[in-house]
Structure formats: structure tokens, C-alpha cells
Amino acid sequence: MHQSYNKLREMGNTIKIFIGLVLTGLMMFSSCNTKDVKTGSTELDQRVEDLLSQMTLEEKIGQMSQVNGGGPVVSEEMKEELRKGKIGSILNEVNVENINEIQRVCVEESRLGIPVIIARDVIHGFKTVFPIPLGQAASWNPELIQEGSRISAAEASSSGIRWTFAPMIDISRDARWGRIAESLGEDPYLSAQLGAAMVKGFQGEDLSNETSILACAKHFAGYGAAEGGRDYNTTLIPPRELRDIYLPPFKAAVDAGVRTFMAGFNDIDGIPATANEFLFRQVLREEWKFDGFVVSDWASPWELMNHGIAADEKEAAQRAINAGVNMEMATTTYKDNIEALLKEGLVSEETINQAVREILRVKFELGLFENPYLAPEKQYQFAKAEYLASAKEAATQSMVLLKNEQQLLPISKSQKVALIGPMADQPYEQLGTWIFDGDSTLSVTPLDGLKQALGNKMGFAKGLAISRTRHHKGFKEAVRLAKRSDVIVFCAGEESILSGEAHSRANIDLPGAQNELIKELKKTGKPLVLVVMAGRPLTIGEIGEYADAIVYAWHPGTMGGAALADILLGKANPSGKLPVTFPKVVGQIPMHYNHKNTGRPANPNSWTQMYDIPVKAPQTSLGNESHYIDAGYTPLYPFGYGLSYTQYEYSNVVLNNSVYAIDDTLKVSFTLKNTGKYDGTEIAQMYVRDLVGNVSRPVKELKGFARVSLKAGEQKEITLELPIANLSFHNEKMEEVVEPGDFNLWVGGDSNAELMTSFTVTK
Ligand code: BGC
Predict the structure, then answer these.
(1) Of all atoms in ligand 1, which is nearest to the CA of residue 265?
(2) Hey, whose CA ends up nearest to atom 12 of ligand 1?
(3) Whose CA is closest to atom 6 on ligand 1?
(4) All domains of the chain in start order, with CATH
(5) To test ligand 1's pocket by mutation, which of 165, 303, 503 has the most ligand atoms within 8 angstroms of CB?
(6) pLDDT tens string 81-95
(7) Rounded to the nearest 5°, which phi and psi values hold at 80?
(8) Could you give the CA distance from residue 595 to residue 650 in angstroms, rounded to a whole number?
(9) Rounded to whole angstroms, how far apart are CA atoms 651 and 754?
(10) Where does ligand 1 bind, in terms of residues with CB under 6 Å?
């Protein structure tokens, strides 16, 4: 390997000299990207223009094409394409020798020596797997999430990857949608904060550093609103909701410096995202001044024919290119049609030049021209001790304690534990969806974690082979074990394949015979801890009644079992809070905390459960309010919810003022006290309601939060800030405004927070 690397390096040096002549000053690009005061153009702009001006049409089209890689060696066919400059990026190649060879062919054997960008879905880890993004979001910890993304970038880049298709920041209000696992939940503010943290983690401080990888804000936009939660389905998002709910995380990604975007598969009211000029030209480039580039989703230009908005591949390419999608992933509608489109005047030369310009700019920023190869000593840096420690911390902070009757948890070490359930020892399944490179041999399962802590003070019986097992063959052994123990820990959930892309579910109960086994185990009279390892909120309302304690662990990644053991045994105190509303039954979906009040809001005092309604009750005797007669109007668990082994008390809420101007910053202070017996970390949340608006406003909106660590008995004065400008929304005329008027503000431990104060905004 060393020999061939040295050869590559020698050849690379020759090429570097050549490029250096063509593009003067390139080697110093990152330090001298200063603006010419007269022309407003930077040296980087000039280098891009120099290169662009030398390119043939075929080479330009090449930059706009991303092809699939992989395989034991780089095929001759691919090398030939690279030589002709016909490929701009390759995805799914993770072998460094192949990648170095690919770059060698580009820089040495192609006319202009332009390297390709190697891309891969590094969604929540590379070899070391972090919790699924929805789980990470439950930590409400931007710093930790940034660290995790930095580690993922370090591992992935040591495999030659310089571009990930993450973060996925689609607002997800529907637990049926399999891709909710990949999202950061239902809230625009939380998703914006955490998505920006991921961007910073992946891209690092300097993109040209070889451990930095490009982030990609996806899927622009509205993909999470798939009708019925069925993946790829059409979406109907009113313009105001698009602006106020779905777009803010993407704007935050731009502000955090994200350099690429991906177009969604979905259409919004008939216009597929991939052909959406409004999104990519008006919003992204004109309004937000984004100057990176946009990649399509896999075959999404080609799919414009399936959407029925393009008659053939040529028209599909025309619509995607004109909408502002720079690069086509996997299919070849661009490659095969751009020449004809130009000839017929259906796409302008300037549109192509601009698309290529934006791609080249990012390639320069990545430092690919200076450093196309990865040196042997920098290759394959995986699963270092500090990476595993960070993954464990992320898993610990992602777990949400939903129920803890009689303070069953933490379990004392003197108790005999019966570990049961289909997810208790599944090194692969606990990694979750989108883990192409995840190494399940590194996984610490709940069985490993508890065994290490408890030794033979515990017993294990799967009960069910996998989460979907329907027969009861393992029940007897599991019940026998439970009877011999003091406490049952049941690891339930869904296998990783049951969530993720194209894996939507219409019924989101625990699959297989899990509910039946839990009921059997409960008959033993032993206290039962239900641990749920899943890619989405599952409807555990009814079965949750059989549990004395519930820990929602999501798919927790490599170190999930070690983190879980710490939580169950009290070495760590749970601090996770739900980033998404948990419905009681699937029919309540979509259900989110920031809903509208309606003209007939639900009334807690007038709701009669369906089975309590008297026979032949007169039609109006039950009142006329917005609820379900069989499921009410409240969720199983609200957004922001999560318990701890200790208790927190909020009091003394005070504002620094009562009236604010639009450019003021509100400061809310309150006392947060740990009134329980354990040290802990509380995620204190601030919600606001705009009481009267030009259009109806949500009943509550998250506007800030803080992670506060408190020793048992300790109290702290906490201050959260809210720039009044952050109260803006889009009015009837679709103008973004902060309206003068009265607001309520709550602080507390979840979206049902009750400690309230009020303020007024003036002109
Ligand atoms: C997904 C994207 C992903 C791409 C490349 C598509 O099917 O929608 O999120 O990045 O594949 O693997």
C-alpha cells in the first residue's frame, strides 16, 4: 500500500505543479481568499472563473453528474469517464485505495485535473454509530451533537469521504413516516439549533482540513409532510406553514455555513421539490444568498417523469436544471440531454456555467486540488476510545424516562434482574437505520452492559427471537426467569429495518407478540421496566400500563447497552426530553404541540369518553369541541417531556421588562431547584404564545432552552434570552412580521409548562 501511495504522491506532485501554473496562487487559497474592493470578486472567484473558462461543455456536464461507486476495484469504464472529465462526484465508494486511484486518474489523466468529491450517507456515525438523529435530538444538546458529527467526519474522512448527505432537517410530525428516525423531530426551533450543530461538526472550522466533510441540508423541502406518513407521498403545505415551520431549520443550516443542499423526492402541491424554482432560485439563492450547490436526491430528476411533470428525460433535466439543482445523483438525464437543451435554447449557457461555478467553488473550498490523496497514516481511524466514549454519552443523554412508578428505577445492585426481550441482545438492530458502514461487532448490547455491571446477578431470556416474532415458543422460559428474579427489564422495540427510508408503518404498536409476552410477564407480579428501542415513537399507551417504568432508548447506536446499564443502575440520571409528541393511538396523527387553537378548542371538563356516553344521548349533549370521543385531545406524552430520578421545581419567573420594542431582547429569569435526592440535569424550556395575530398563531412555540446541572437540593437562577425579532411569522400578505401585541411566556420542563408570565410588544 505504501509503495503505491508514494507513487501516487509523486504523480500528484507533478500534477500539482501543473495546476499551480494554470491556477496561480491556488496553493494559498484558504489564506488569501480576500475580496477585490473594486470588483467585489475574490481570488477564489477568479480561480473558479479561470478554470471554468477552460472547460468544454462535456467537462461542464461532467461536473454536474454524480455516479455510484463501490466494488472491489475501480472499473476501467469508470476510469475512462474520469479521464474525459465526465464525473463530478462519486457516492458510495469507501475504499481509500480506490479513492486515491480515482483521484489520481482525475488529477493526472484528465485534461484539467479536477478531483471528484467522494460522498456517502454518514447520517449518525460511520464505524462508531451514535443514536439515530431523533434520539440525539432528545439530548437537546447542540455541543454534544456537534462533537458526534465531528467524530463521524473524522472517521468518514479517514476512509476518503469528503461529503455526507446530512443533516436531515425535515420537520417530522408523523411517526408513521419511517424517516422520522433520521429527523430531529417536530419543532422548527429545536431542529434549527441541532441541525446547525451537525453542520458545524461535519464541516469543522476549516473545510479544507482533511478531516472536514461537506454537510448537506436535506431534503429541501417539506419531505416530512408526506401525506399519511407514507414515504415519497405528495405533500400539501400551505405557503405560511412552509415558511414558518418547514423552512427555518434550512435557513439555520445556511447561517451555519452549510455548503450543499439536497432536493427532496416529494412534490409540494403539485410541484416536485426537484423542479421547484421557488425553493431553489427564490428562497435559497435569492433570499438566503446561498452560494454552495444543490444535489438532487437519488434519481429525483428522472422521477419527474413519474410525477407526471415531464414527458421524457430531456424535459425532466430541463426542469431540474432550471429550478437550480446543480448536480444529478445516480441517473443521467443531465448528461444525456444538456447539449440538446442548450441547442434548443431550453436551458441557457449561463445557467450551466452558474451550476458548474457553484460546484467548483466548493471543490476549491474543500482543498481537493491541493490534497487529492489521503496519506496512509491518516487512513482508517476508527472507533478510538474517545469516539466510543462520546457515543456512549450521546446514547445516555438521548434516553428518555417516560414513567417511573414508586421510583422503581434506578435498580439497586442487590436486586436480581431478569433481562428479557427481542431487542436485548441485537448488536446490529440497535444501530438503527442508515448505518451503511456501522460496525456491529463494536456494539455493546443491553445484555453486555448489564452483564458487565451485574455479573451473575442477572439472567437473560430472549422470549422472542426478533421484534416481529409472533409465536410464543420462548414465553415459558422467559416467565420462569422472571419468577426467579426481583425485577424484569424487558427490551422491546422494532428492528432497524422497520424504520428509515421507504419503511413507513400504518400501525405503530410494538410488532410481533411483544405485547402478549409483556402481559404474561406482568402476571408474575414482578415489577417491570419497559425499555423501547425503536426508530420512531411507538404507540405504547396501552402496553405501557403494564410497565412500572419506561425508558425510551430509540435505536441508541454502538454504545447503547453500556449507556442503558448506567441509566438503569443509576450511574447516570436520565435527562432526555422528547423531540416529538407521542400519540396515544395512531389515529391521532398528525399531532404536535405547536398546533392551532381552532374556534372550538378542546375543553378538559366537557370531554366524555366514548364508552361513558349514555345510550341515545342527544346530539349536542356532549358539547361541540375539538377532540376524539375515543382518544381525547391530549397525547400520550407531550413534546419536551422526560422524567429524571430527581425532581425539579420552577418558580419566581420574572421578565427584565414588561414592554418590548421589536429590536429588544427579552430576558426571562426563574429559579430552578433540584428538590429530589439525585444530582441531575434538567432541560429548562421557554415557550411563547402570541395571543392575537393577523393570522391564527400556534398555542405554544418553543423559543429557547438550557441544560442545567443541579446537585441534589441545589437551586440556580436561570436566565434565558429571547430576541423579540424571533417572534416573527408570516402574515396574511406573506410578509415576515413581528406584530405588536400581548404574549404569554412559560418556562418549565415540557410543553405543558404552567409557570407563566406575560409581556407586550410595541411598535
Ligand atoms: C435518500 C437520501 C440519500 C440518498 C443517497 C436517497 O434514497 O433519500 O437521503 O442521501 O439516497 O444514498
Answers:
(1) 8
(2) 121
(3) 298
(4) 215-362 (3.20.20.300), 392-568 (3.40.50.1700), 596-634 (no CATH), 648-761 (2.60.40.10)
(5) 165
(6) 999 999 999 999 999
(7) -65, -40
(8) 25
(9) 10
(10) 121, 165, 218, 297-298, 501
Q: 218 CA distance to ligand 1 centroid (A)? A: 9
Q: Which residue has the cell 476512509?
A: 159
pTM strictly above 0.90 = yes
Predicted pLDDT of residue 471: 98
β-pairing, 680-690 vs 701-710, is antiparallel
**Residue with the nearest Cα to atom 2 of ligand 1?**
297
Dist. CA 369 → ligand 1 center (Å): 27
Q: Is 619 exposed, middle or buried (0-12, 13-18, 19+ CB in 10 A)?
A: exposed
Residue among 172, 231, 501, 504 whose CB has most ligand 1 atoms within 8 A, to mutate: 501
Find the 265 Cα to ligand 1 centroid distance in Å. Answer: 9
Burial per residue of 494-519, b for 16 or more beta-carbon CB atoms within 10 angstroms, e otherwise: bbbebbbbebbbeebbbbbbbbebbe
- Mutate-to-test residue for ligand 1 from 177, 295, 298, 435, highest number of ligand atoms within 8 A of CB: 298
Is the dihedral angle over the CA atoms 265, 325, 173, 401 positive or is it negative? positive
315, 360 contact by CB (below 8 A):
no
Residues labelled as active-site residues: 297
| Between 212 and 620, the higher pLDDT residue | 212
End-to-end CA distance of the chain, in Å? 68
For 362, the grid coordinates are 466548493
| 729-730 and 715-723 beta bridge pairing | unpaired
pLDDT at 10 over 60: no
CA of 76 to the centre of ligand 1 (A): 26
- Cα-based distances in Å from 164 to 152, 501, 591: 10, 17, 31
Residue minimizing CA distance to atom 10 of ligand 1: 165
Q: Which residues contact 717 (CB under 8 A, 6 or more apart)?
A: 669, 670, 671
How many angstroms separate the alpha carbon of residue 650 from the centre of ligand 1? 43
The three-state (H, E, C) secondary structure of 663-728, written as one string: CCEEEEEEEEEECCCCCEEEEEEEEEEECCCCCCCECCEEEEEEEEEECCCCEEEEEEEEEHHHHC
The distance of Cα 612 from the centroid of its chain, to the nearest Å, equals 42
Q: Is 436 within 8 Å of 593 (Cβ atoms)? A: no
**Which of 651, 706, 643, 712 minimizes the C-alpha distance to 676?**
712
The residue whose CA has the least distance to atom 4 of ligand 1 is 298
- For atom 11 of ligand 1, the residue with the nearest CA is 298
Which atom of ligand 1 is least distant from the CA of 165? 10
pLDDT digits (tens, 9 = 90+) for 533-580: 999 999 999 999 999 999 999 999 999 999 999 999 999 999 999 999
Residue 28 is classified by DSSP as: G
61 CA → ligand 1 middle, Å? 22
